[in-house]
């Protein structure tokens, strides 16, 4: 019997508390950097499993289990929820007004806790060190950096490899892997441009930031269509334009909120440089009395899976789940901050996708061509992964991936 099968023998007996943990977390979601209750639950369980537990980065929790000589594996789950009002009508729906686990981080926490328990109970099947890391504030791109700023790299053993997963709107029971970029890098950007205010009847006395910002929005549409090489991925979205208060007042400034997504750091540099050049140029053309102000926030690094690590874990998934349950992952345009952690340690990583949608519903939607309509996506108020088999497969994936490095038969 393989080391994974030995460790997973008791999974069915553990699923009860894993489901209870999931529903409890779902009922009590917490926003980024406010995950005190969640952190407390994680701490209590890891300590009861026999892990050496630390709080790192405020609401981050890390458990370390040393089990003899061997490699060191770090597995990560994110813990925060979103400012979304739940509309699922589940009997375990959020009890916190305006806050919901709409991205599945409650699945991630529960699955990693389950894996941590099984690995602690099955220490005779593996050797090395296992690190279970529960990271806050992924949704605002701040949690991994908060843990690093709190000296994560000196407080835990240096891993040989880092692992993470994310539940997605694909059929439960499936896992999906890919080498190279799997999640985009992302930047949010607030741009303030300045005009000269005046009465609406006296436009000749003004520098109109309404016209200026409209020109900027139109010109920004050329960044992808005319300045990005065909075949290179880039998204530039103007998500908000705020200017003016009254019809007969020409205001003195405007703010634009932009979101950028890319898969390549060179493309990112090109896109951001083009945005700043266009904004400055339009301000100069309009006679703006002041240089524009650029403020970057909610910045997410590229999630770029190491090829060797991904091939290694994918092979282990094939052996355990069977080839039909392991799919090539489609690159996602969403972003994550997980990669800062392995990058800080200088170690390879892989990040795979976990199916969470009801398989029958998903298959019917695929057949009818209605996936986008019938399967709620992450961040939707209707997002609700099915507990079974999502939690079981999530636990198994963490165990199998870790034991592909730590198992005595590995």
From TrEMBL:
Keyword Cell membrane set for record: no
Listed cofactors: Mn(2+)
Domain Peptidase M20 dimerisation positions: 188-282
Keywords tagged on the record: Hydrolase, Manganese, Metal-binding
EC number assigned by the record: 3.5.1.14
Entry-linked Pfam families: M20_dimer (PF07687), Peptidase_M20 (PF01546)
InterPro entries, alphabetized: Amidohydrolase (IPR017439), Bact_exopeptidase_dim_dom (IPR036264), Peptidase_M20 (IPR002933), Peptidase_M20_dimer (IPR011650)
Residue sites binding Mn(2+) per the record: 103, 105, 139, 166, 379
One function term, GO molecular function aspect: metal ion binding
Manner of cofactor binding, per the entry note: The Mn(2+) ion enhances activity.
Enzyme class (EC, first level): hydrolase
Keyword Metal-binding attributed: yes
Domain of life: Bacteria
Name by which UniProt lists this protein: N-acyl-L-amino acid amidohydrolase
């Amino acid at each position: 019997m393989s080391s994974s099968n030995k460790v997973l023998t008791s999974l069915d007996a553990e699923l009860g508390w894993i489901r209870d943990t999931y529903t409890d977390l779902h009922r009590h979601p917490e926003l980024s950097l406010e995950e005190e209750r969640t952190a407390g639950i994680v701490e209590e369980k890891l300590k009861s499993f026999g892990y050496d537990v630390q709080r790192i980065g405020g609401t981050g929790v890390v458990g370390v289990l040393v089990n003899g000589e061997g490699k060191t594996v770090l597995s990560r789950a994110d813990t925060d929820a979103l400012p979304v009002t739940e509309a699922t009508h589940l009997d375990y729906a959020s009890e916190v007004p305006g806050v919901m686990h709409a991205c599945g981080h409650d699945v991630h926490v529960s699955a990693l806790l389950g894996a941590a328990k099984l690995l602690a109970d099955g220490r005779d099947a593996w050797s090395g060190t296992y690190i279970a890391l529960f990271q806050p504030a992924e949704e605002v791109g701040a949690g991994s950096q908060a843990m690093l700023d709190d000296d994560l790299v000196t407080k835990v053993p240096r891993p040989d490899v880092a692992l993470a997963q994310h539940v997605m709107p694909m059929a439960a029971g499936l896992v999906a892997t890919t080498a190279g970029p799997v999640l985009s890098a992302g930047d949010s950007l607030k741009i303030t441009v300045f005009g000269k205010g005046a009465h609406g009847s006296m436009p000749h006395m003004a520098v109109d930031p309404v016209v200026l910002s409209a020109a900027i929005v139109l010109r920004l549409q050329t960044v992808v269509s005319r300045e990005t090489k065909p075949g290179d991925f880039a998204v530039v979205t103007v998500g908000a334009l705020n200017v003016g208060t009254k019809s007969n007042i020409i205001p003195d400034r405007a703010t634009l909120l932009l979101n950028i997504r890319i898969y390549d750091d060179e493309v990112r540099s090109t896109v951001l440089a083009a945005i700043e050049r266009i904004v400055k140029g339009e301000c100069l053309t309009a006679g703006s009395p002041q240089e524009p102000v650029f403020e970057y926030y909610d910045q997410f690094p590229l999630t770029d899976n190491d090829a060797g690590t991904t091939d290694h874990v994918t092979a282990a998934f094939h052996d355990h789940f069977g080839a039909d349950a392991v799919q090539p992952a489609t690159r996602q345009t969403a972003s994550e901050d997980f990669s800062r952690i392995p990058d800080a340690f200088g170690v390879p990583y892989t990040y795979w996708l976990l199916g969470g949608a009801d398989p029958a519903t998903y298959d019917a939607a695929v057949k009818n061509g209605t996936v986008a309509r019938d399967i709620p996506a992450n961040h939707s108020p209707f997002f609700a992964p099915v507990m079974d088999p999502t939690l079981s497969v999530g636990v198994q994936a963490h165990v199998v991936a870790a034991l592909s490095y730590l198992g005595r038969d590995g």
